[in-house]
Request: fold
Amino acid sequence: MTQMEHKMYRFSEAPIWELQRAYYEEQGITAWQSGEVPQYITSNRVMAISYAEMLFGFLQDRARMGQLTANVTILELGAGSGQFAFYVLQELTRLTQMASIPLPPFQYVMSDFAEKNIAFWRQHTCLTPFVEQGVLDFAKFDAVQDREIYLQHAGEHIRSGDLAQPLVILANYFFDSLPQELIYVEDKQVYDCRISLQFPEGADKLSISQQLKEVVGSYHYQREHMYDDKSYPYRELLDVYRQHISDSHILLPEVSLACLHRLKDLSQEGFLLLTADKGDHRLESWEYNEPPKLIHHGSISLTANYHAISYVCEAQGAQVLFTKHPYTYLNIGCMLNLSEPNEYGLTRLAYDRFVERFGPDDFFNLKEAFDSQLEQKTMPQLLALWRLSGYDTQFLLPSTKRLIDLIPDGKDHEWISLQQGIGHMWAHYYPMDGNTDVALACGILLYQMDMYQDAIPYFERTQPKLANDATVLYEMAVCYYELGQDDAAKRYVDRTLSQSPEHEEAIALQELLISLR
Reply:
């Protein structure tokens, strides 16, 4: 291992953050397509529905206040693959259309600092309809420094004080990935916790991801009088830590707080923040903390200090909502940094119904247990949780084999429910690459239920990637034969046998087709 000049850095200024930035700029959408960066826990239908319900409540609250004219801007920070935005937009537009009540117009803005991600969103066929409807735009936004938002499709800037409505900010798995300061509190004293880094020999020949995985940090402590200065903007927060915390390392989200301050400046009415991350809002959870471990998943992440963010927002008059029960994987917060937060009853009600009572973290716990017990589940049980998931794609794929086993003994109404579920799921499908697993699973399930007309479009979607897959080609041949389309059936039988000359079922079907001429 080589130490980088034995240099000590303030934690927020360490080279790991530049590497992190370079990773996302270099990888773009590939970071999520490869599965290297996890996204399912914050980019599933249950999560999106919860957020859409809170956004719908917020629009209703603004309407009750008579604010029906000006646009409500919904800014997603670090929108990543774009899947979450797609799900939210689908659900929010559905809710507003079904309600048929006067609401202020809204515009959803997907933002990121990586140009490659924005380029991917702009050409994605699932997002184009929302752009054409005028409810979606894109922006390059650097949370570390930017003070304005440039809407790339509209060609307009949002600058200080431009927004007449409160800004709505969505930040999932975001604050944990921004640079943070690290302090150590002991005996009512605050120490700056600095870091030196050791990279492996030949680090310059490694990928950025591998460098982030291999780097080892060492921590060094020194008194930092800046934290004692009355002019330090978060002095009161540190006083709380001095009085109540001991022998503990605390991540201080100065960059995140500065970002929120700049975003708040864009609106005359404050902001609503919906956020989800690993990180606690309870003061006691930050006591006796060991030095942070860099969590590696292609990039790196730490823990979000929701206590610090909540404290600063509450000092500004905000009302902050987190669940009364501890979270397991994902802590979801709703921060109403608005002039009259108590007036937003429908927003708070939506949080209570879709996060507090049963929310995305609860669903993820259920799904994890369910996935490990698939072989014991009945079809009604599988269908029930699939409906609860909002017909989520990642619920169907692990369940496909079990469903195939259950289909022969399934009842008619169960088959119909499965058929309908496939249709609902496909309407919410957001492809990120050429992966055909979802289309193939749908085709196979419908084929197993003798729903040949429905199966064909899904099998066709697996082409040309599976153009040489004898199993798919044969099942397509059977579908066309059962539908009385003998010429098409013959084409696919011939293609099957060209790939697998000994395929007995295909040989038999070929002979049958010849006999029918």
